[in-house]
Amino acid sequence: MRRLNRKKTLNLVKELDAFPKVPQSYVETSASGGTVSLIAFTTMALLTIMEFSVYQDTWMKYEYEVDKDFSRAIPHPRGHAHLAALVNHDSYNFSHRIDHLSFGELVPGIINPLDGTEKIAIDHNQMFQYFITVVPTKLHTYKISADTHQFSVTERERIINHAAGSHGVSGIFMKYDLSSLMVTVTEEHMPFWQFFVRLCGIVGGIFSTTG
């Protein structure tokens, strides 16, 4: 009795099949059909490899928000260094080189724009100015997670000549400003479900086109 009910159920399912199968005896193979199948499978393999490379690739997502952390203090020693009383004015030479300048934790991949900067003074009464904007940065990648800072800089230099109207004090000056915006950098990649859906779309589309 159970077998009879099972056969009836299978027959009912077969009647609901929206894709009737052609008997094998009616199927005829040909060279053109084999060529189309070969091209289809080759295209399918190439697109699958390309999709897999895209799935393995990562990109950086940048988000900006107001920095609400006011609890951190910047360590800064008190005092100023004056060379006027120690060196003759005509002997001033403000040629300099900045080997490295960074703010916060050292993180691979973050570019410090002043590293390796070298300036040659052409006059003993010359001013060098660096206007630095420091941006708090949170970095989250698959390898590291750190709270650090990035900065941008604008450089200016000029010769001090009061007779020509160029006033100021010769020297090297670094003026920095803390940005009120915080940048969050997150490394992301394509989720597996999206990769699977795209893969099914490739396979199904090629079969539908060549079938």
TrEMBL record:
Q: Indicate how the chain sits in the lipid bilayer.
A: Multi-pass membrane protein
| Residue runs in coiled coils | none
Swiss-Prot/TrEMBL keywords:
Endoplasmic reticulum, ER-Golgi transport, Golgi apparatus, Membrane, Transmembrane, Transmembrane helix, Transport
- Record domain Endoplasmic reticulum vesicle transporter N-terminal: where: 13-73
* One cellular component term from this protein's GO annotations in UniProt: endoplasmic reticulum-Golgi intermediate compartment membrane
Organism domain of life: Eukaryota
- Subcellular locations according to the entry: Endoplasmic reticulum membrane; Endoplasmic reticulum-Golgi intermediate compartment membrane; Golgi apparatus membrane
Any Pfam family: COPIIcoated_ERV
Family of the protein in this entry? Belongs to the ERGIC family.
Indicate what this protein is called per its UniProt record.
Endoplasmic reticulum-Golgi intermediate compartment protein
Q: Identify the species of origin.
A: Heterocephalus glaber
What lineage, starting at the top, does this entry show? Eukaryota, Metazoa, Chordata, Craniata, Vertebrata
